[in-house]
Amino acid sequence: MTEKHGSGGALEGIRVVEMGQLIAGPFCGQLLGDMGAEIVKLEPPETGDPMRHWGQGDTPSWWRVIARNKYSVAVDLRSQEGQSLARELIAKADILIENFRPGTLEKWNLDPAELRKTNPGLIVVRVSGYGQTGPYSSRAGFGGIGEAMGGWRGIVGYPDLPPARMGVSIGDTLAATYGCMGALAALHHRSKTGEGQIVDSALYEAVLQVMESTVSDYSASGTKRRRTGSTLPAIAPSNVYPCRDGEYLIGANQDGVFARLAEAMGQPEFARDSRYATHLARGARQEELDALISEWTATMTIAELEAKMIAAGVPAGRIFDAEDMLADPHFAAREALVTVADEELGEIRMQGVFPKLSATPSSVRRPAPLTVGQDGTDVLKRWLGREGSDA
């Protein structure tokens, strides 16, 4: 991989200072970096971002994903010298990202209001558990807490078991994604006015935004959504069904699609049967219908069932894991996975850049910085025009 400062991406020329740690702030930086922005990550000199050590397996590699396209500068934000250097860099930046507890920047003499006096076009993305205002704003808040308060955790799992987690840090990444969206909107506003602004992205609100009609249903009729395992109430058929060699997901709840599924099952009359002919009727007999489909799918292998679903035009799919993704031709054709050279791990595979832009494609231009502060001299020279090291 050949590194280049000019990316050709949609955000080429945009400079970002990232102060965040762990997931939410750094994921926001990853998204902006993939789109071409230059990301300078400020890390504590001794320890760096804890994400350097996160992941699973003998060689955790999450850092390689979340820190790609970034430059590491070691800065002790608790010291006057570090705060001074941070202010100098922020004065040259378009966007500042942080995900500390509200009030932390102010305590470090980095109040966004003061920073914007020096740099009026500065956009500050602030990601936190509960937002910058309100009675809970000063509380510590991780992604799981946001998922619980936003309603996600309460509906994931089975009704006879405690709430389950998603399996990935969805609260953090949602809040980061909304922070990125806010930054892009703020850049558009700045292009017209020259003025920056604050983007306040709360973990619980990011989760709340994707909770569909849970609040509205309760407001309108007193209905509370409950944990229902692998199904959605009254949406049928839409479930994971057993095959001889595993499980397979079928989503055929729309009337026309259900008719095609019934034909593939050799039971075309199901589409005309008053018990199953409409969305409401199928929803009322969800368990009964799932049992009929499961009895049919259990007679086939996944490959046999998939061939039938493709031929019938029924939305359906295998349950993929990482090994399946690496072997799949569609992933390869769309470059959904990319290869990044790594000095320690060799070539490493990871998710590509999304969404795909036709005129200004995003890219992975450089691997994650292996050591804390490795890019300090380079960044200080290019951004500040001076020789020196980190602070």
UniProtKB/TrEMBL annotation:
Keywords tagged on the record: Transferase
GO molecular function, one term: CoA-transferase activity
Organism annotation: Sphingopyxis witflariensis
Pfam short name (any one): CoA_transf_3
Lineage, uppermost ranks: Bacteria, Pseudomonadati, Pseudomonadota, Alphaproteobacteria, Sphingomonadales
Entries under PANTHER family matching the protein: SUCCINATE--HYDROXYMETHYLGLUTARATE COA-TRANSFERASE
SUPFAM superfamilies in alphabetical order: CoA-transferase family III (CaiB/BaiF)
Annotated protein name in UniProt: Formyl-CoA transferase
InterPro entries: CoA-transferase_III_domain, CoA-Trfase_fam_III, CoA-Trfase_III_dom3_sf, CoA-Trfase_III_dom_1_sf
Keyword Metal-binding: no
